[in-house]
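Sequence design from tokenized structure. All designs in this work follow the same two-part layout: the structure record, then the generated sequence. An example of the structure record is given first.
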């Protein structure tokens, strides 16, 4: 049976259906999604126990099976065989749109390569929902999923994403690592505008915006929980010149320690502390070299005419 033919068990075309489900509020599901889930022959879930709550709420009794990163390789061939027999298979994630930081890409690619019908049933998506309410530039954005869990690797990833900083950068993060991520954002991007969107559409939804330092202070005092989306504003169009930064640093270091001066200039300019610190070291080196040169000149014996 070809991908365009219909299965005999209902009006739904044979094929693979990528179905978005609510982020948290059960009513954020489309009527079309309910139709597809009810008519499908099989629903693939990240966690069948999690999805069972939503399906039960809407009286959907379709057979379910687990599909996740740990069983994907052994499951995909079975799914492709069922698609080849003209069945209708729906793929859902625990929340939101499948394949957005969820398993499924390899299945979709294999199904498409095999010529099967693939249909998107759109709906909730955490990155888009967060972007719509963050108050950050939304005409261009980059979604980078989860960054590495270790600080050094995470900072390296953030450095690598600088080329995509023409728009808002969106990432997911675990609650236990949020303050560490905010620290790394400041280290790489400086006092940039950041929005943290937590538990979207749920009872304890929280959307908070500020500099990484301000947000870190808040979440140190109020331990975050739940699903978290972090949005990082693009850099300002006119970054200060190196000469301007050097002048600001020289003024600041006249009365402050190097560390405090770096923090003050980073806050004023929005530049990363790492870059400001490098300039501070360069200024100190230049100052020391100038002082050494001056002392050597003063120590040289003066030649007198004879």
């Amino acid at each position: 049976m070809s991908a365009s033919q219909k299965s005999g068990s209902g009006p739904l075309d044979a094929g693979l259906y990528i179905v978005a489900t609510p982020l948290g509020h059960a009513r954020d599901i489309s009527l079309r999604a309910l139709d597809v889930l009810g008519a499908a022959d099989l629903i693939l879930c990240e966690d069948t126990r999690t999805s069972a709550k939503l399906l039960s709420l809407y009286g959907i009794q379709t057979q379910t099976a687990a599909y996740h990163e740990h069983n994907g390789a052994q499951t995909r061939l079975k799914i492709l065989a069922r698609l080849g027999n003209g069945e209708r298979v729906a793929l859902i994630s625990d929340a939101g749109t499948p394949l957005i930081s969820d398993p499924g890409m390899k299945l979709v690619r294999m199904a498409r390569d095999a010529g099967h019908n693939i249909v998107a049933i759109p709906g909730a998506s955490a990155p888009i929902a967060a972007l719509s309410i963050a108050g950050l530039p939304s005409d261009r954005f980059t979604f980078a999923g989860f960054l590495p869990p270790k600080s050094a690797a995470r900072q390296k990833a953030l450095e690598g994403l600088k080329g995509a900083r023409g728009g808002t950068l969106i990432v997911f993060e675990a609650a236990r690592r949020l303050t560490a991520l905010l620290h790394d954002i400041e280290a790489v991007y400086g006092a940039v505008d950041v929005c943290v969107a937590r538990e979207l559409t749920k009872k304890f939804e929280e959307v908070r915006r500020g500099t990484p330092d301000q947000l870190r202070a808040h979440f140190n005092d109020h331990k975050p929980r739940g699903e978290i989306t972090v949005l990082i504003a693009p850099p300002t169009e006119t970054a200060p010149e190196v000469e301007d930064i050097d002048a600001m640093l020289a003024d600041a270091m006249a009365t402050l320690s190097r560390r405090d001066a770096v923090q003050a200039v980073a806050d004023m300019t929005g530049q990363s502390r790492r870059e400001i610190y490098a300039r501070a070291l360069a200024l100190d080196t230049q100052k020391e070299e100038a002082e050494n040169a001056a002392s050597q000149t003063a120590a040289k014996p003066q030649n007198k005419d004879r």
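Residues 242-289 form one domain. We note this feature because it recurs in several other targets discussed in the main text.
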